[in-house]
Each structure stands twice: as structure tokens, then as C-alpha cells.
Design brief:
By secondary structure, this protein is mainly α. The protein has helices spanning 19-63, 67-95, 97-116, 121-149, 152-183, 192-195, 197-211, 225-244, 252-279, 292-322, 327-333, 335-356, 359-382, 388-414, 422-447, 458-486, 495-506. The longest helix has 45 residues, at 19-63. Residues 509-520 have a biased composition (Basic and acidic residues).
């Protein structure tokens, strides 16, 4: 524990039995409650990213939103979220991760209320942008708090739980959105999809103040305002054209903006190098990329984000527009996928990674690719008559593969990162995930809509969407093959066990714990 981290329990707290054992028991209970709180916040964000898509027809009908406003309701959140993630992570390092987490979740809850009570589409758009900005303060602190609270040998178990939450959040959003919209609670139409965050956010705020311990970088840092401006500008120049490109028919300025974003990022790197040499307080800690596991994990996270961005959107379009299914049926169809992700995530970190290391992640990429190919085959074989139960097998295979990736990958990226830079590292992880997803969404315009004619008769719509779905999934399988190759750059064995062993060795002889098995 660094000098700036406060203990998880105080001597004044009651203890059962010997004082040392009592304090340890209280500390253990408090940190697991803290984990539940930050995981709930992460789940809220994951759900909120996808829950709106299902409710768009209801919003358009009830609020009278134009097509452009509907685009901004979804894109505004993504843009504000992606642009602020690195800054949010660094602010946590400087001012305290607990403080920024509580600020973020309070702002997220207020923004959710503003969305739910929006009087017009303009207010809803502005509230969604605020919601995304608050999520950018909240989300990077989740992994940072875990990194600072749990010792290295326990983080594998924790990140297994985090992977399960990711799997549940990925599919729960559309399902929850479909249920809340169809139920039309109190005649509120789409508004409950935002208002449901209020009791959750208030509870997380109250419990977080009590159970989450404060931590920050051990040396004083200053916010790099020039770095903030450059990273925000670069992210907006890259993601805005990707988000709006298809609707605007891919204008020339969009390509120029995306190309220019790489110039801005190059300027950011040059400036951050000078900033590091001058006062040691850069926004982006470039030394993190000297950690092999971090650099390799960031590359995998980015490309994996591309695959997920493509799959989830074309999957939704295929079921609702191609097959003509209701939002509720489409949401329920994804339940086997969610269960498989959650189960595989826990199994991978708890049982498999300690024994066979990165081979678990590589097996996950191959298993997920197999599930994608199986889905293509079933879609082609059954055509428009395909049923939800027939999709269960490929979805379970895909979910198992994803579960083997998401939980161990997060641990692999963060396990060797110095604690004082965990906020910056967490912000980078979430940022590249969002960049990958945005790139995947942009590629949907080419890989999916590029296969569909603009002039289709009603009878041709279903088969055209099915064919486009199969074509896009072929590219998803190819991307997963690239991920499999990139994973060779990851450490061969679980880094958290290596670090845990070293921590164990540093403890006193009387406190020595059994060293974990190191298997290559």
C-alpha cells in the first residue's frame, strides 16, 4: 500500500478474536463490498451504451425527435465518453480515485434523471452528452480501484468477475431496454430506461462513500491541460466521422478529419515526451508502453473492440430488420451468449489461466471464431426460417470464446502496471476499446450496408440482410484470427501470479504465504 492510500479498515472497527485477525476480516469484507459497488457502476455504463438503441422507435414517436437528433442521442454519449476517458483516469491518479468515482457516479445519476425527464429532444441530446462525460470520470476509476485495493495474487479472481460483468452488460442492455419499453411503466414510454439508473446510482454513492478506500498516485501530479486538449481533439477528429460517416454518405472532410487525427496524436506523443522530461506529470504515461504486457494487451484490446463493434450491430440489424423479430425476442435470443460469457470468464481466470497462461486467451479467439463460422453456416442453411433456439449453439460457443478473452486480458494489461499509473492505464484501456468499437461501427457501413442495395422490394429485404450478415461475420472471423496472432506478444504465463509471488517473498518470514504455482 502506498503512503497515499488509506487503509481499508481502521483500528477502531470491531474485531472478532485476536485484533490482527479481526482487522483483517473487516478489511476483507470492506474491499469485497467496495468491489461490488464499482462493478455495479461498470455494469450501469455497459448497459447504458446499448439500452438506448432498442428504445429509439419509442423516443422518435413520443418525443418527436428528428433523424439527426436520434443520431446524436446515441453518438453524443459515445463521443463524450471516448474523448474524456484518458483525462478521467489521470484525474483519479491526481485527486483520488474514490473522489473521482463518487463525482462521476453522482454526475451520471443526475444526467440520467435529466435524460428521463427531458422536455424535448434537444434536452435529451445535451443530457446524453453530459452522461457520457460523467461516465468518463467514473469508468476509469473502476479498474484503478481494483488495482490499488487488491494484491496481485487476488486480482485474477477479481478480473474474472469483471469479465462476467462485461458479458452480462453486453447483452443485458438490449434486453432490459426491450422490457422497459414494452412494459411502458406508468405510461412513461421510453423514460424508464434512464430513470432506472437513479436508485442504483444513489445506493452506489451512499455505499461508496463508506466502503471504498481512497488511493492516488504516490507523488504529486498536475493535470496536463495541453495534453487534455490534444487527446480530446484527436479523439473527436477520429470518432466523430466514424460515428456519423454512414448517415452523411462518407463526406471528404470525414476522411480528412480521420487522417488529421493521427497528426494530432503524433503531436501529443511528442509533447508528452517533453512534458515527462520537464516535470514528470504527463497526461499519457508513455513509459507504460515499455511494459510488454501492457503494449501487447492494448493492441489486442483495440482489435478485439473492432470485432465486437461489427458483430453486435450487424447481429441486431439482422434479427430486427432482416428477420423481422421484435426487440424483446431479439433481446431474449442473446441470453445464452451472456450466460456463456459469464461462466467462461470466471472459469478462465480461476482455473485455466494459472495452469496454461496465454493459451487460454488464444483458445478463446479460436473458439469465438469457430462460433462465428457456425453462425454463418446456420444462417445460410435455415435462411428466413431460422429460430432463436437454433442460434443458441453458435452463441454459446462465441460467448465461451469471448469469456476466455475478456477477463484474463484485462488482468494481463494491468498486472505489471505500477500502481501510481493505474488510473492512466485504465483510461487508456477503455479508450482503445471505444476506438476499436467506433472503428468496427464505421466498418459496418462498408461490410454490411455495402452489401445491401438501396432499391429492394419488401420480399428482398430479409434475404439481403441475411447475406450481408453472413458477409460481415466472415470479416469478424478474420479479425479474430489476427487477434490470435497478436496474442503471441502477451506474456506466456499469468503475470499476476509472478507479481504475487514476488510480493509474498517480500513479506516477513512469519507471514509467508504459499507461493502460487508458476506454469508456462
Amino acid at each position: 500500500m502506498t503512503s497515499t492510500e488509506t487503509p481499508l479498515s481502521s483500528p477502531a472497527e470491531p474485531a472478532d478474536g485476536p485484533v490482527g485477525q479481526g482487522v483483517t476480516a473487516v478489511a476483507d469484507r470492506r474491499r469485497w463490498i467496495a468491489l461490488a459497488i464499482v462493478m455495479t457502476a461498470a455494469f450501469m455504463d455497459l448497459v447504458d451504451v446499448t439500452i438506448v438503441n432498442i428504445a429509439i422507435p419509442s423516443i422518435q414517436r413520443d418525443a418527436g425527435a428528428s433523424t439527426s437528433q436520434i443520431q446524436w442521442i446515441t453518438a453524443g454519449y459515445a463521443l463524450a465518453f471516448a474523448a474524456g476517458l484518458i483525462t478521467g483516469g489521470r484525474l483519479g491518479d491526481i485527486h483520488g480515485r474514490k473522489r473521482l468515482f463518487l463525482l462521476g457516479i453522482a454526475g451520471f445519476t443526475i444526467a440520467s434523471a435529466l435524460c428521463g425527464f427531458a422536455a424535448n429532444p434537444e434536452m435529451l441530446v445535451a443530457s446524453r452528452i453530459l452522461q457520457g462525460a460523467m461516465a468518463a470520470l467514473m469508468v476509469p476509476q473502476v479498474l484503478s480501484i481494483v488495482h490499488a485495493t487488491f494484491p496481485a495474487h487476488e486480482r485474477g479472481k477479481v478480473f474474472g468477475l469483471f469479465g462476467a460483468i462485461v458479458g452480462l452488460g453486453a447483452v443485458s442492455g438490449p434486453l432490459l431496454g426491450a422490457l422497459l419499453t414494452e412494459w411502458n411503466l406508468f405510461g412513461l414510454e421510453w423514460r424508464p430506461i434512464f430513470l432506472i439508473n437513479l436508485p442504483v446510482g444513489v445506493a452506489a454513492l451512499i455505499l461508496g462513500r463508506r466502503f471504498i478506500s481512497e488511493s492516488k498516485a504516490p507523488k504529486a501530479l498536475k493535470l496536463d491541460l495541453v495534453g487534455v486538449a490534444l487527446v480530446t481533439l484527436g479523439m473527436l477528429m477520429l470518432i466523430y466521422p466514424l460515428t456519423r460517416g454512414r448517415e452523411l454518405d462518407w463526406p471528404l472532410w470525414g476522411y480528412a478529419s480521420m487522417a488529421g487525427s493521427f497528426v494530432v496524436f503524433a503531436a501529443l506523443v511528442a509533447y508528452e515526451k517533453r512534458k515527462t522530461a520537464r516535470d514528470g506529470s504527463p497526461l499519457v504515461e508513455l513509459s507504460l508502453f515499455k511494459v510488454k504486457s501492457f503494449a501487447a494487451g492494448i493492441a489486442v484490446q483495440t482489435v478485439f473492440g473492432v470485432a465486437l463493434g461489427i458483430f453486435f450491430l450487424v447481429w441486431t440489424l439482422y434479427m430486427q430488420f432482416g428477420l423481422g423479430w421484435s426487440p424483446l425476442r431479439a433481446g431474449l435470443t442473446g441470453v445464452p451468449f451472456s450466460i456463456a460469457v459469464s461462466a467462461a470468464a470466471g472459469m478462465s481466470v480461476q482455473l485455466l489461466v494459472p495452469r496454461i497462461g496465454r493459451k487460454v486467451l488464444q483458445a478463446g479467439a479460436l473458439i469465438m471464431a469457430l462460433g462465428v463460422l457456425l453462425y454463418i453456416w446456420e444462417s445460410d442453411r435455415y435462411g428466413m426460417s431460422i429460430a432463436s433456439w437454433q442460434m443458441a449453439l453458435p452463441l454459446v460457443v462465441m460467448g465461451a470464446g469471448m469469456g476466455f478473452i475478456v477477463a484474463p486480458l484485462t488482468d494481463a494489461v494491468l498486472s505489471e502496471v505500477p500502481r501510481e499509473h493505474s488510473g492512466s492505464a485504465s483510461g487508456l484501456i477503455n479508450t482503445v476499446q471505444q476506438m476499436g468499437n467506433a472503428l468496427g461501427l464505421g466498418l459496418v457501413s462498408v461490410l454490411f450496408f455495402g452489401q445491401i442495395s438501396d432499391h429492394l422490394r419488401p420480399a428482398q429485404v430479409g434475404p439481403a440482410f441475411a447475406n450481408a450478415f453472413q458477409y460481415a461475420l466472415g470479416w469478424v472471423a478474420a479479425v479474430l484470427a489476427v487477434i490470435f496472432l497478436l496474442m503471441f506478444a502477451l506474456p506466456k504465463r499469468p503475470a499476476q501470479h509472478v507479481e504475487g509471488a514476488s510480493e509474498t517473498a517480500e513479506t516477513g518470514a512469519g507471514e509467508r504465504k504459499p507461493e502460487p504455482e508458476l506454469v508456462g
